[in-house]
Design brief:
CATH topology of the largest domain: Arc Repressor Mutant, subunit A
Helix content: 40-55%
Oligomer: single chain
Number of domains: 2
Number of helices: 9
Shape: globular
Strand content: 5-15%
Length: 188
């Protein structure tokens, strides 16, 4: 393996010292050159190691290899589980963003409490994404780079599809039976 050049070393140092994941433009501002070749080199150099260089959305960061993350968890770590309403709301936002509160409620079929969105905002998984250009100008919501990082996704395209969800047993039998009823031409 050839030793890294100055650009690779500079990009590595910038990412290592960063408090949050960085975009290519932010890295370029620090090192004064296009960092993409250095990022590719670093990603290859760190592949299979205890720390890896990963891209989450349009941002880059070093993180512990997924198979070693359990070594760094604190046993006293308090895990806050999301309510079913919060999980459903997060999924709707992830799959339909940008989406308004009214659209979330229409998809879920029930109203959501303000606290549900507050929990997701506080977790850093969703953010206000502007206002719709319709009467009332409702606020829209979208996922954040923190959402991608937390769930280990490079982009929203990595979200599981319907077949993945079915294979994992995450679809209600009610959902599956109603899906069968909707298929034309099926007879018992």
């Amino acid at each position: 393996m050839t030793p890294p050049d100055d650009l690779v070393r500079a990009v590595e140092a910038v990412l290592f010292a960063a408090e949050a994941p960085l975009t290519v433009d932010a890295i370029r501002a620090h090192v004064g050159a296009d960092p993409r070749p250095a990022l590719a080199r670093l990603q290859a150099d760190y592949a299979g190691r205890g720390v890896q260089l990963v891209r989450r959305g349009d941002r880059w960061l070093f993180q512990t290899a997924a198979d070693l993350a359990h070594l760094l968890r604190r046993t006293s770590e308090e895990r806050r589980s999301l309510s079913r309403a919060a999980v459903e709301t997060l999924a709707i936002i992830a799959y339909h963003e940008p989406v308004t509160r009214a659209e979330i409620e229409a998809i879920r079929g029930v109203q959501i409490s303000r606290g549900t969105l507050d929990v997701l905002l506080e977790a850093g998984w969703i953010r206000p994404a502007g206002r719709r250009e319709v009467p009332g100008r409702p606020l829209t919501y979208a996922t954040t780079p923190g959402f991608l990082t937390h769930f280990g996704l490079a982009s929203r395209r990595d979200l599981p599809g319907i077949d993945d969800l079915r294979a994992a047993g995450l679809l209600d039998p009610v959902d599956l039976s109603s899906e069968r009823l909707e298929k034309p031409g099926d007879s018992a």
